[in-house]
């Protein structure tokens, strides 16, 4: 029998994660360390989620999130049920409360991709099992846990990182802001004036940053990114938003080109949660350059989510 020892106990057991800031800095640290342990070798955790079941409830399409969860949970010996809600939003056939109160009778956790953050808070209110946000209109915490792992793998210290966000101040941007705020780096958020991050989440970020000294520069100047460790961009039009030629035109100055990466610096990483719209927010030459770590980010989705789920399900000390 191999014994795996994890330095901290599962303070996360039975908790929900709707935003990254539902985790403390220490809990994120523990999660990243466990993700690294898993990535090295899943063998000791092969039965960690035996007899446990996770419901994946998706109102929007997914490649990375769905596949990394299904394969990841299988690697831990657990099972998943995928509920496809792309045709009928949760809450249409019966209330969100009743929906959750059924699912909790069978499932050990609900991992949900929804249009409205409110759907998650409503599920959390009525359901005793952990709810994990797999992307909503306001946040994408699973993505940013994987990105934090990727940044560290590329030698970047989360407490002193300098990140540049270019484009739409969207769900992924909000979660990245929370990571920066929790760890204490500096983030430049460069967006058109009418696509800034949501004011309420900016305020929450400021509260978190007051404890760590993290700094934020909100600007419409796409050139304010010199000397950063990583340039991060995302789709100009997120799922659920209507396609808009006007918005895309206003985003053009924020397109990540070779000139952008030169300005950022030769050691700057290029990051994107994917799917990428090549020729819109980023050019092929950047996506496919040695500075691009986008597929590392995608790979790390599985390890970061598995580390989180093991803790939420109280199975992180599993030994086999
Ligand atoms: N990054 C991400 O969440 O990808 P999917 O939409 O394919 O799940
Ligand atoms: N901001 C994008 C992220 C996709 C993973 C969206 O919400 O569509």
Task: Describe the model.
With about 325 residues, the chain is an alpha/beta fold. It folds into two domains: about 10-140 and about 300-310, Aspartate/ornithine carbamoyltransferase (Rossmann fold, 3-Layer(aba) Sandwich); about 155-290, Rossmann fold (3-Layer(aba) Sandwich). Helix content is about 40%, strand content about 15%. The chain has helices at about 25-40, 65-75, 95-105, 115-125, 140-155, 170-185, 200-210, 245-250, 260-265, 285, 295-310; strands spanning about 55-60, 80-85, 110-115, 130-135, 160-165, 185-190, 215-220, 230-235, 270. The strands form two sheets. It has a five-stranded parallel β-sheet with strand order 7-6-5-8-9, covered by helices on one side. Strands 2-1-3-4 form a four-stranded parallel β-sheet, sandwiched between helices. Helix 6 (about 170-185) links the parallel strand 5 (about 160-165) and strand 6. The N and C termini lie close together (about 5 Å). About 50% of the residues are buried. Mean pLDDT is about 95; it is low at about 1-10. Phosphoric acid mono(formamide)ester binds near residues 63, 64, 273 and 274.
Summarize the structure.
Residues 1-8 have low confidence and may be disordered. The N and C termini lie close together (6 Å).
| Cα-based radius of gyration, to the nearest Å | 19 Å
Q: Give me the CATH fold name of the largest domain.
A: Rossmann fold
CATH architecture of the largest domain: 3-Layer(aba) Sandwich
Shape: globular
Oligomeric state of the chains present here:
single chain
Distance between the termini: 6 Å
> What is the string of helix and strand elements?
HEHEHEHEHEHEHEEHHEHH
Number of strands: 9
Give the proportion of residues in helices: 25-40%
Strand order of the largest sheet: 7-6-5-8-9
What fraction strand? 5-15%
Structural class: alpha/beta
**Low confidence ranges:** 1-8
What does the average pLDDT come to? 95
How many structural domains does the protein architecture include? 2
Main sheet attributes: strand count, strand direction, barrel closure: 5 strands, parallel
CATH class descriptor name of the largest domain: Alpha Beta
Which ligands accompany this protein?
phosphoric acid mono(formamide)ester, norvaline
Number of continuous helical runs: 11
Determine the CATH superfamily of the largest domain: Aspartate/ornithine carbamoyltransferase
């Amino acid at each position: 029998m191999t014994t795996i020892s994890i330095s901290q106990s599962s303070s996360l057991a039975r908790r929900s994660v709707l935003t990254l800031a539902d985790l403390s800095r220490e809990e994120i640290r523990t999660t990243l360390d466990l993700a690294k342990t898993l990535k090295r070798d899943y063998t000791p955790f092969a039965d960690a989620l035996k007899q446990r079941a996770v419901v994946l409830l998706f109102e929007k399409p997914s490649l990375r999130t769905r596949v990394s969860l299904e394969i990841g949970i299988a690697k831990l010996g657990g099972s998943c049920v995928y509920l496809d809600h792309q045709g009928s939003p949760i809450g249409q056939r019966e209330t969100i409360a009743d929906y959750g109160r059924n699912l909790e009778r069978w499932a050990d956790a609900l991992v949900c991709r929804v249009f409205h953050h409110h759907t998650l808070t409503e599920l959390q209110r009525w359901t005793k099992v952990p709810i994990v946000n797999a992307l909503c209109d306001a946040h994408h915490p699973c993505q940013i846990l994987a990105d934090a792992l990727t940044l560290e793998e590329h030698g970047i210290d989360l407490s002193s990182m300098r990140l540049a966000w270019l484009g739409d101040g969207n769900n992924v941007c909000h979660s990245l802001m929370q990571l920066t705020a929790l760890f204490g780096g500096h983030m430049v958020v460069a967006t058109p004036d009418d696509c800034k991050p949501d004011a309420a989440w900016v305020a929450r970020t400021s509260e978190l940053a007051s404890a760590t000294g993290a700094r934020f520069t909100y600007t419409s100047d796409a050139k304010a990114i010199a000397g950063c460790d990583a340039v991060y961009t995302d789709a100009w039009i997120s799922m659920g938003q209507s396609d808009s030629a006007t918005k895309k035109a206003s985003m053009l100055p924020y397109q990540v080109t070779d000139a952008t990466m030169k300005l950022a610096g030769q050691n700057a990483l290029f990051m994107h949660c994917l799917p990428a719209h090549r020729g819109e927010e980023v050019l092929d030459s950047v996506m496919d350059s040695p500075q691009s770590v986008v597929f590392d980010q995608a790979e790390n989705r599985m390890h970061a989510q598995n580390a989180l789920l093991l803790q939420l399900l109280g199975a992180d000390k599993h030994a086999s």
